[in-house]
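# step 3/5: fold
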Amino acid sequence: MTSLTERKKSFINLGKFLSDFCQKKTDKTRDLDVPEEYFERLQHLIQMSKINNPWFTEENIFLSLESWAEALTESHIDQWLVPYEINSTPPKTIALIAAGNLPMVGFHDLLCVLICGHKAVVKQSSKDKFLMPFMVEILEYFESALSGQVVFTEEKLTDFDAVIATGSNNTSRYFEYYFRNKPHIIRKNRTSVAVLSGNETKEQLSELGKDIFCYFGMGCRNVSKIYIPENYDLNLIFNALYDYHPIINHDKYANNYDYHKAIYLMNGEEFLDNGFLMLKKEVQLHSPTAVSYYEYYGSELQLKETLKVQDSDIQCIVSHNFIPNEVPFGKTQQPQLWDYADGVDTVNFLLKI
């Protein structure tokens, strides 16, 4: 069994490896002595991921890898683990069912399981099946005692002590029933919203574009709805987001844009359009790809009450001096290790099993 210090070191080294890879460091400038074949294989797996899932562009995969390189530092890991007492206890087996909407979206759950000293049996989405097994292989290279601690399977999950499963609202009902007799974390569909005061700078609105367009808006941390004050000029948003217009050159994104635009036109629905994003006035939170919903609000107090009612559907609130725990513009896809999905402390859950 590995010690917490050894497990932490393996993840810190993984972070250094990813940093070296993303910065394209040469043998002479790398922080770690890692065989060249690992760098070549990761580049190959990125290409495989692109072929397997066209939403996984090289830019988006690198965005994920760079995010993990920044997160897996000694200072960040130490800060993350301060509140916990992680003792050497007999390891349990945790089943992980990962989503496939973003590259390596299930890696945080795997990190939590391993850092707590547990074993993981992982069922990946077919949309994202190449990158996480390689990350485990790198971890095992840095710490051989981790070998066998993670098993990837496509079969029915059996012989586990607890489960963490992420899926749609429909699959979550199945998960809730199927895993009802096991300790579990079941995640459903969530999305993120932005609240504008009308005093934002052009730079802040431009940063909002990252929250909308990163990963083509397919993550629960992506902003799908914008709350704006009455009489707000929506051209301010369009003008600030113009630099993101190359996104329309991606075939699958363009197909979604064309499809939803055609539906709105045929149904005679009102919307605003700048050639790569549609803004549509809606009460709902979850907008389709290439569309952002918006809604006017009268008072901040009333809006806070509305958002409180919708809390179970919201992952992040992007704003400036609006509420505690808000996310700054442009930062939704840069979560810290302690920013748990759905606000559920995964480490605390794993330590109490």
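# step 4/5: annotate
The first helix runs from residue 4 to 22.
# step 5/5: archive (pending)
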